[in-house]
């Protein structure tokens, strides 16, 4: 490859391996692992986002939602999500149940729940279905970040985490477009309402993805028996990453991991970081404020379905661009104040509600899309700093999603569309999340975790002959995503 090609690939996708065999392996991992986690998260968010689309296009009236019934439905989902995270965290890091089976099983389960929503007749039935659905959906987001951290190096992780995170927004984007088409073409067909077709189609999309995962997903590097990986590639997967030894979970090993977890600043601070940042920076999508404003402003069902796609497209583009900045500068922290600035502008604008025209409303909601970049950069940050213990890493990643209380207190649907209390709360929690990010930055330098060393680094070969392969011993620097570039310079000097 030419120097320009390498620089472009490094900037947009991460530094390519110099060893041809590792380069081929990385392509395989992207084609299967990254494709599956993106498809599963796409389906996950498609099922999740469609409640808001269904609610604003007929479900509210058909099922007689009143008062805060919709808020309770969302909160029941959050409650199930929080509860479901703990068993998934332990299952994925236990070494006893392969993610190859766990992820597809959970997909089938939440797909069935999604299908059941189409025949709900009361808000309480929706509450129960959403709670059960969330128990299984809880495996996907943090679990996929855990899997990405198990297969990819730090300098490979950020951009792939961004692609994964944008899969959720693609699900939201597709949901709105799909609902607009359903309202236009399927409303009333076979005696079903448009919002019912929405959940039926969701189910039809989810199941094939689950089957694909069962057939192709490799699990973890320590236990994989994937047919598309050679034995040499399986060994390469283990040796190219600074993983600690993988053991099957026992009461003794679990207690050791828990002791490490409670003594470490990482679990406390990363849990606080995403708990506060998600509740504030993702406000436009999580609390459906754009959709609810469009409904209150008298827009048509098709417009309510299509217009939020502009916000979603902004979230997709900004997540990838901000992750490029994070990777290029080697600074995960910097994304947090950028997100806060964007959401600060959004909330301050909407607090001046009586002085806004429609263009200002659109601007305030669309700029909020920048708040989704933390799904990639902050989870990559946690992955990088928790490599010394798989249970600690898993529990930390899954713990970064606690926000049950927040919507009930600050964003009840009876406050729609102004959500004055929610906008004020966003300014506070957003500021707190930046302070927590500063503390993580400080602690990672003042009290760096004792991370495992990288055992081998594959160097560019003069020959593709297997007998010519050699390894260079290097140390692993957890505080910089530029580590691999520094290693290359040092190894060239040795030569």
Automatic annotation (TrEMBL):
- Could you list the residue ranges forming a coiled coil in this record? none
Locations of Acidic residues compositional bias? 457-466
Tell where it localizes.
Membrane
Per the record, the GO terms for biological process are: pantothenate import across plasma membrane
Determine if Transmembrane helix is one of this entry's keywords: yes
Protein name in UniProt: MFS transporter, ACS family, pantothenate transporter
Q: Which UniProt keywords apply?
A: Membrane, Transmembrane, Transmembrane helix, Transport
A Pfam family of the record is MFS_1
> Residue spans with biased composition (Polar residues)?
470-481
- Chief location of this protein within or outside the cell: membrane
Family the entry assigns = Belongs to the major facilitator superfamily. Allantoate permease family.
One CC-aspect GO term: plasma membrane
Q: Which residues cross the membrane?
A: 25-43, 70-92, 101-121, 127-149, 161-182, 194-215, 267-286, 306-326, 338-356, 362-382, 394-412, 424-443
Membrane topology value: Multi-pass membrane protein
Q: Which domain of life is it from?
A: Eukaryota
Compositionally biased tracts (Basic and acidic residues): 482-495
GO MF term list: pantothenate transmembrane transporter activity
**Signal peptide region:** none
């Amino acid at each position: 490859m030419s120097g320009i090609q390498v620089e472009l690939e490094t900037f947009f996708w991460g530094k390519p391996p110099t060893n041809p065999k590792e380069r081929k392996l990385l392509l395989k991992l992207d084609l299967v692992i990254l494709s599956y986690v993106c498809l599963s998260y796409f389906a996950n968010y498609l099922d999740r986002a469609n409640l808001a689309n269904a609610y604003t296009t007929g479900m509210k009236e058909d099922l007689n939602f009143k008062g805060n019934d919709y808020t309770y439905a969302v909160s029941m989902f959050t409650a199930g999500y929080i509860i479901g995270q703990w068993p998934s965290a332990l299952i994925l890091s236990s070494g006893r149940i392969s993610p190859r089976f766990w992820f597809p099983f959970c997909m089938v389960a939440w797909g069935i729940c999604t299908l059941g929503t189409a025949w709900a007749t009361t808000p309480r039935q929706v509450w129960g279905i959403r709670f059960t659905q969330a128990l299984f959906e809880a495996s996907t987001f943090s679990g996929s970040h855990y899997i990405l951290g198990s297969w990819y190096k730090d300098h490979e992780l950020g951009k792939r985490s961004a692609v994964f995170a944008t899969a959720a927004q693609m699900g939201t984007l597709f949901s709105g477009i799909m609902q607009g088409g359903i309202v236009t073409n399927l409303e009333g067909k076979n005696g079903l309402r448009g919002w019912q077709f929405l959940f039926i189609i969701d189910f039809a999309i989810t199941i094939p993805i689950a089957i694909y995962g069962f057939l192709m997903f490799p699990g973890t590097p320590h236990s994989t028996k994937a047919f598309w990986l050679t034995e040499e590639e399986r060994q390469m997967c283990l040796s190219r990453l600074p993983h600690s030894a993988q053991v099957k979970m026992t009461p003794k090993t679990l207690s050791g991991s828990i002791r490490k977890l409670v003594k470490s600043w990482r679990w406390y601070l990363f849990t606080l970081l995403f708990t506060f940042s998600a509740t504030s920076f993702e406000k436009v999508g999580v609390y459906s404020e754009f959709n609810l404003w469009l409904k209150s402003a008298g827009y048509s069902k098709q417009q309510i379905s299509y217009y939020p796609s502009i916000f979603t497209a902004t979230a997709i583009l900004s997540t990838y661009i901000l992750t490029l900045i994070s990777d290029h500068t080697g600074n995960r922290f910097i994304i947090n104040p950028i997100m806060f600035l964007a959401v600060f502008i959004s909330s301050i604008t909407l607090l001046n509600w009586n002085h806004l025209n429609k263009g200002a409303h659109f601007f305030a909601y669309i700029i909020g899309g920048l708040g989704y970049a933390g799904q990639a950069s902050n989870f990559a940050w946690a992955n990088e700093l928790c490599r010394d213990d798989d249970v600690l890493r898993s529990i930390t990643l899954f713990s970064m999603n606690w926000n049950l209380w927040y919507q009930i207190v600050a964003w009840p649907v009876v406050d729609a569309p102004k959500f004055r209390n929610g906008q004020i709360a966003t300014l506070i929690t957003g500021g707190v999340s930046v302070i927590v990010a500063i503390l993580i930055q400080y602690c990672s330098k003042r009290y760096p975790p004792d991370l495992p060393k990288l055992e081998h680094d594959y160097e560019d070969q003069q020959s593709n002959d297997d007998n010519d392969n050699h390894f260079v011993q290097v140390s692993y620097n957890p505080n910089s995503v530029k580590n691999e570039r520094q290693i290359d310079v040092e190894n060239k000097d040795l030569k």
